[in-house]
Amino acid sequence: MILITMTLMFALEGFGKGQSSDRGSLAMLQDYSQRAKQVLFIARFKTSRDGAYMVDLQHLLEAIVIEDQGGQELSKMFGFDPTAKKIQGHTFESTSTPFFAADLASELLTKIRSFYSYSPPTSTSKDMPLSDELAHALTVAVELRQKTHTDKIEPLHLLAAALGEKSSKATSIFFDAGITQETVLQAIKDGK
Description:
By secondary structure, the protein is an all-alpha fold. The protein has helices at residues 2-12, 34-49, 57-69, 71-77, 102-113, 132-147, 155-163, 169-176, 181-189, and strands at 86-87, 90-91. Strands 1-2 form a two-stranded antiparallel sheet. The protein is globular.
């Protein structure tokens, strides 16, 4: 993906800076799959664009759904024509099967976005701390990767970890849609 792969490491440079190494395990970025890194990039990008002062769990959940849906959601986020199949020679077609049905993804995104209070955008190069909820979820994602014996942390590990934060308003949206940590862990076990 043109913007994601070319700027991912630069953008993640300020993601979670100033936090101890036990808060999110971002020091081991090589343990994240390319798709999971894209989720982190999207969460960081959306945080700046929405004018938030820290990356929160709802940013991660929104990013998971956006990445899952692939081309159309990504191109909308970056301001490209959502019907375009390629931008500057790079495809926005997802190579994976989406976890969320398109109508459910749209509904989830609408509800997640209703929680935001938007402010003027901030710089994407500014250091951005993580909320305690998000830092905990990233740590749990590392543990879930180990428990499921997978090589890399995938977006579904991030989703399962986020859904473990039951007190979040954003996770309640997923629970209301029948998506729980247990259903996501089963999908990981089933190889989805």
